[in-house]
Every structure is written in C-alpha cells, then in structure tokens.
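Figure 2 data, in text form.
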Amino acid sequence: MKINKVFKSIRFRLFGTLCISIVLIIFCLVIINNVVLETFYLYSKTTTAVNISEGINDYYNGVFTYNINDRLREQERTNNIDILILDDNFNVEYCSNQEIIENVNKLETLHGTRNTIIYSQNNIVVQSIKDNQNSQYLMLKANLDNGYITYIKIQIEPIKETVRISNDLLLIIGILMIIIAAVIASVIANKFTRPILQLNRITKRMANLDFSQRYRISDTEDEINMLGKNINEMSDKLELTIGRLRSNNTKLEQNIEEKSKIDEMRKQFISDVSHELKTPIALIQGYAEGLLENVNSDEESRKFYAEVILDESNKMDEMVKRLLELMKLEYQERKFNDIEFDLTELIKEELRRNTVVLKENNIKVEFEDNKKIIVFADQEYIEQVVSNYLTNAIKHAEEKNGEKKIIIRTEDKKDKIRLFLYNTGENIPKEYINKIWGRFFKVDSSRNRTQGGTGIGLALVKAIMNNYNNEYGVLNHENGVEFYCDINKKK
C-alpha cells in the first residue's frame, strides 16, 4: 500500500518525468554524435584539403611568392595531413613521407582499397578510402593548371575514437544528470507539494468545523495560490455562519485559559518570593527573639544582633525593589531615558567601586580604557547590566593555568556596540545555559548567602535587553565563561 502510494506521488512522477527526459536527450545526443559529428568532421577536413590544394595551384600559377616547402610543412603540422606533389612526368616534387607514396600507388592501381567519392569538382576529387588493414582515411587528388598532381591524405581514424569517447562521456553525464535530477525533483516536488499538503491540512480542519488555519498567500499568482485564496474565502464564509454559535464558547475558553495562566504566574511568583524571603525572615525572627530574651547581655553582642537584623532587612528591601523593577521591565511599563554617554567611563567607574573586592579575591582585570565609546541608552540601566555582569564574574572567577582574571572588551557592530565580560573559571553546564536568565536561578546552590546573591541580576539583564530588542547571551570557553550584550551606538 505504501509502495503504491509512493509511485502515485507527485515527487515520484516528477522524478520519473525528469529521468525519462534526460534519457531521451542523451539518446538523441548519442545519435547526433554518431551521425552528425563524423559527417561534419569529414566536411570540415574536405574543405580544408580543397583550400590547401587551391593554394598550391595558386602558388604554381605565380599568385604567391612564399616558400612552398615551408608553407606545406606548416599546413601538415597544423592540420595533421600528408602531402604529395608530382610533376607532369610523375616525378616527386614534394613528399611528406614514404607512406603517402604507397597509398597513392594503391589508389592508382585500385588494389586493396574500397573507395567512396565524397567530393568531385574543378579537377579535384576527394575519396574516402578503407584499405585491407581497416585503416580509413581521406585522399584528395587535384590536377593543377601546370600539369602537376597534388595528393593530400587526411586520417579520419581519430574521429572514430573521438565519437566513442564522446559516447562514453555522454553516458557518464547521463548518469550524473539522473542523480542531479533526483535532487532537483526532490526540491521542486517539495516546493510544490508543501502548499498542497498545507491545503490538505486546512481542508481537513474545515471538515471538522475548525476554520482557525489560513493558507499563507505568496506573491506568485499561480494556480495553487489562487486555490489557496479561494479556500480562505470559503473558510471565512463558513466561519461567519458557524462562528456566531461558537464565539461565546471560544471567548469563555480563552478567559478561563488566561485566568489559569495568571493564577499560575501568581502562584509561581508567590512561591519564588516566599522561598527567597524564608531565610532572611527566619534570621530576623531568631535574632529579634534573642534580643528580647537577653540571650547576650553585653552591648557588643546586642549590637551584632541588631546589625544582622538591619542587614537582612536591607537585603529584603533590595530584593523587593529589584523584583518590582523587574516586573515593570518585563511588562514594559518602564520608560527609558536614553542619552549619549561614554561606556568606557561607566565601566571604569564600576571597576573602581569593586576595587576592594577584586583585590581581596586576587583577581586581575584586563580592560582597554584609553578610548571613548559613545553609546545611546538609559545610563542607569546599562550601569545595572555592567554591574550585574561584573558582580557575577567576580563571584565565579577561579584560578586557571596559574591566573585568575576578568577580561572586559568591546566589539563594533555597525549601529551597536557588543560588550564582552570574561572570567576564568568553570563552564556553565549546557542544561543551565537558558535557565540562568530566569528569576532566582543559581547554578551553584551550595554557595552561601554572602556570595550567592538573589538570582535576579541576570533576569534584569534579560529584561533590559528585551526592552531594547538587543542580543545578549553567554559563551563557554576552554578556561572560563564570557557574557555579552549589545548596546545602541550614538545616533
């Protein structure tokens, strides 16, 4: 059943048509090659020999004054021929070699030859000769005006070999063309069958009263495109008739689905926030209870408890602010105040802020800070991007090949500047490459709270870049990780 379906397919029929056409073309070329090529070759060589004999006649009539022997040798080399000239007493005036004399003797005695006259005009006769050794050649005999006789021998065996080689070549070309035809047929058939299969899917949906899918109209005005337009029009009319009965139900389903999505997002958000606030709230509660119960009566301990509570409160406050900022960015409710500023100065300022941390962690920073890079964006948000990338690099920088470093570089991309920030360290596992841009995601959950951060930084970078429709991402290298993002250039 499947084989029968394949044979009936457009792809197979198109392939079969192309193959048959190629075979017929190759067959016609072989016939033309065998019939026309040899005939044309004989005609061409005959014409050449006649012209040479006429030139020899003109020489002896005094028309030309060049050296006849040099001219004849040049003609022999150029046209691969042999020439014999006999004077009026049958003495040899000029001879290419002994073989042509033997051929002429056989020709004149009509012994051991099978001759066919192919040209006869103006005292010139050209014969096709096949001797007893199955050697075939053309022999021209011309009676000159001064009584001399000229013989010109032209081998035609090479054309036989050429025809055979041409036939073999055509056979190889035919096989290659059939293979190419298979590829072309597949491509063309796919081009034609794709819209047909699309129409088939649409009509099946229409049979089930589903009119949601439409045929994609292209610029070409062919029959398939017109059929697609007609099916779209028919679908529209049927949908208008049936749609009134289904519209309320569809809207209800959409509302339920949207509500479900919103509830799911709300649950996820509450779950994430609850998980992140659990630890700081527990710490604040524990240290507050300790203060109330006078666990440590000395002033220094009470001060330490109060500092922990204040630190955790600040962290919670910072996280909530960053979450609110992230929500505004994700829902595109934040307006950007784009200005021109120097990206190099912004990066240098971020490095100055982190000088102590970099020294404590013994991290070397490489950054070419001697050139101005003017960009056009919201400086506050780009500062957040650079800060998040730099903080992330500092946290994950590790010693590789005896060095622990961060490399900051830029790359000019027409209307944008691509910022790269690399740090030596372990690669990010492939399964985490896309997850790191989500809220609260941390690759290494074993890190302590001091180093771990909130997991919102890269989500903020993603939201900022999405608002600008700019590219961002991360690349794993042999000894480290490199984050990048695009920033619009000065207009």
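Caption note: Residues 223-292 form the longest helix (70 residues).
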